[in-house]
Specification:
The complex is a heterodimer.
Chain A: E1 6-10, E2 16-17, E3 21-26, H1 32-39, E4 47-51, H2 59-69, E5 74-81, H3 89-98, E6 103-107, H4 113-134, E7 138-140, E8 146-151, H5 162-175, E9 179-182, H6 192-196, H7 202-221, H8 229-233, H9 239-247, E10 255-259, E11 269-273, H10 290-299, E12 304-309, E13 322-326, H11 329-335, E14 341-342, H12 353-368, H13 374-377
Parallel strand pairs in A: 3-4, 3-5, 5-6, 8-9, 8-12, 9-11, 10-11, 12-13, 13-14
Antiparallel strand pairs in A: 1-2, 1-7
Chain B: E1 12-13, E2 21-24, E3 33-36, E4 39-42, E5 52-54, E6 63-66, E7 69-74, E8 83-84, E9 89-90
Antiparallel strand pairs in B: 1-2, 2-5, 3-4, 5-8, 6-7, 7-9
Classes of the chains: A alpha/beta, B mainly beta.
């Protein structure tokens, strides 16, 4: 069952995609409706809607859009602008073109308004879908994969079953030289000392601690409690114990580096994605919902996202398949149709962590060979991107390989 | 350390070898007699799902280890079979422990 051959579409930058989607992007909220209308008839054939709602330009959002539009799962991009927004659409268009993807930029104001732009956009997509369906695939190895992990709708079972099982899957991926990305620095408070010992260099260890300290400061400023009475009711005694549950997603491999949204891991290994903005607190919460983090993991090149849930999240994502690992056996019984893996079996004594970890790893390969995840099959293509600001990563964050 | 001496009730889950606590897979009522690491223990109080019990004697000041990672330290001597929560464990990270009467 481990002998599945993944197939990928090779892109100009050498990376391979496990899907061949057309991204349809709005460059301001004012173009969102037109984009939705353009993509709707083709939503099951691979047209995925992404975009940025703000009218004011933002360097982070531009970088995110550049990375998403040149993601290996994307074969062509239609950009839709109202015409007067602040987004640097020419630069985005050029980035996509230079990356060897077909790209079209339609400004609604210059194309006769809503109806005419929808018609033009649909004609463009139909032609691209025809081309993309002819493109050949190549065999793809596990070492060419980038996999991200996130938890959402967590409960007391998440840290006991799904998160550590995903950690095992991460270990299997790293052993085969894939790149694996974990995040949520705000939920690693109290684990940073422990985590720093896993860093490949002492300098990186210091950066990991600084990263979590930044998250702690940020959340404190926002008045967001790290440890609530409800956590204690659920049996969690300390902030370390709570963080441990989320930290378990990272598995046991050495930590190779820290990246920020839109940074692509330079090679295989385990990476921490620092999602908390730099500088003074601006623009509110670092990530307002799970899909904001998923979009960041995808912008870092993730082909597949592992999503652990206890209470039962249903989301998927635009551009990359989401594998849902359900931590709670009762939730699984209620929502089996939304879940790819039942990690709650561990609580019932029917499976151990290694078994479920291996099951997740095998499923990643099958999804890489074309199998649809539950959320893909149900049509989930959530996407959200908002304002943020980041400084580039420092030299200690990505130590060179010895 | 013969393993036959270390039988633990299947309602308890020891997450990683070397852990000094186990968590309840489901709610276990008070006064229940349980096998913990080969010894018979009577539960002083109901053990809620996900709540912790010591699987060996833990001296005050020792680390509490769950999934192989330290989650705080014992503030009192804890005997095998004792309930482990914020009455006998403190965070090494936050100076103040949250004082909440934990639900069973």
């Amino acid at each position: 069952m481990s002998d599945v051959t993944m197939r990928g579409w090779r892109r100009a930058d050498g990376r391979k995609g496990i899907r061949n989607y057309v991204a349809v992007a709005y460059l301001v909220e004012c173009a969102h409706h037109v984009v939705k209308e353009i993509a709707w008839p083709y939503r099951e054939q691979g047209a995925h809607v992404i975009g940025f709602p703000g009218c004011y330009p933002n360097a982070y959002a531009l970088k995110m859009m550049q990375r998403l539009c040149t993601h290996p799962n994307v074969g062509a991009v239609l950009l839709v602008s109202l015409g007067c927004e602040g987004f640097n659409k020419k630069l985005l268009e050029r980035t996509i073109r230079e990356n060897g993807r077909p790209v079209e930029l339609l400004a609604i104001q210059e194309n006769g308004g809503t109806r005419a732009t929808i018609d033009k956009g649909r004609a463009w997509i139909e032609a691209r879908l025809k081309e993309l369906s002819q493109q050949p695939t190549e065999p793809m190895g596990v070492s060419e994969l980038v996999v991200g992990t996130i938890c959402g709708g967590s409960d007391a079972t998440s840290g006991l079953t799904a998160n550590p099982a995903m950690g095992r899957a991460f270990d299997f991926l790293v052993q085969e030289k894939a790149a694996a990305i974990f995040e949520e620095t705000g939920e690693l408070i109290g684990m940073e000392g422990w985590m720093a010992e896993r860093a490949v260099t002492p300098e990186l260890g210091r950066e990991l601690k600084a990263c979590v300290a930044k998250a702690a400061r940020y959340y404190e400023t926002l008045g967001y409690p790290s440890f609530a009475p409800g956590n204690a009711d659920g049996g969690l005694t300390t902030i370390e114990e709570k963080s441990l549950g989320a930290y378990a997603k990272s598995g046991a491999s050495p930590i190779s580096g820290i990246i920020k949204p839109g940074d692509i891991p330079p090679r295989g290994g385990l990476y921490l994605l620092d999602v908390v903005p730099d500088g003074e607190v601006r623009f509110g919460f670092p990530n307002i919902s799970d899909n904001a983090e998923i979009a960041e993991l995808i912008a870092c090149g993730s082909h597949v996202i592992l999503f652990s849930t206890g209470r039962g999240s249903v989301v998927g994502s635009a551009l990359a398949p989401v594998i849902k690992v359900c931590a709670n056996p009762r939730t699984y019984a209620r929502m089996a149709d939304d879940m790819d893996v039942n990690a709650g079996r561990i609580l019932e004594g029917q499976a151990d962590l290694d078994t479920v970890g291996r099951e997740i790893f095998d499923l990643i390969k099958r999804v890489g060979a074309g199998e649809m995840t539950r959320s893909e099959g149900l049509g989930h293509q959530e996407f959200i991107l908002t304002y943020k600001s980041f400084e580039p990563i420092g030299p200690a964050c990505l130590p060179a390989v010895a | 350390m013969a393993s036959s001496d270390h039988t633990t009730d299947p309602r308890l889950l020891i997450l990683a070898p070397g852990d000094n606590i186990a968590v309840a897979r489901l709610e276990i009522p008070a006064d229940m007699e349980l096998q913990v690491a080969g010894r018979k223990v009577r539960l002083q109080r109901a053990l809620g799902f996900g709540h912790k019990i010591a699987v060996r004697d833990i001296a005050a000041g020792e680390k509490i280890v769950k999934y192989g990672a330290p989650i705080g330290r014992a503030t009192a001597d804890i005997a095998l079979g004792d309930y482990v929560h914020n009455h006998n464990v403190a965070s090494d990270y936050m100076p103040n422990t949250v004082v909440v009467e934990a639900a069973p």
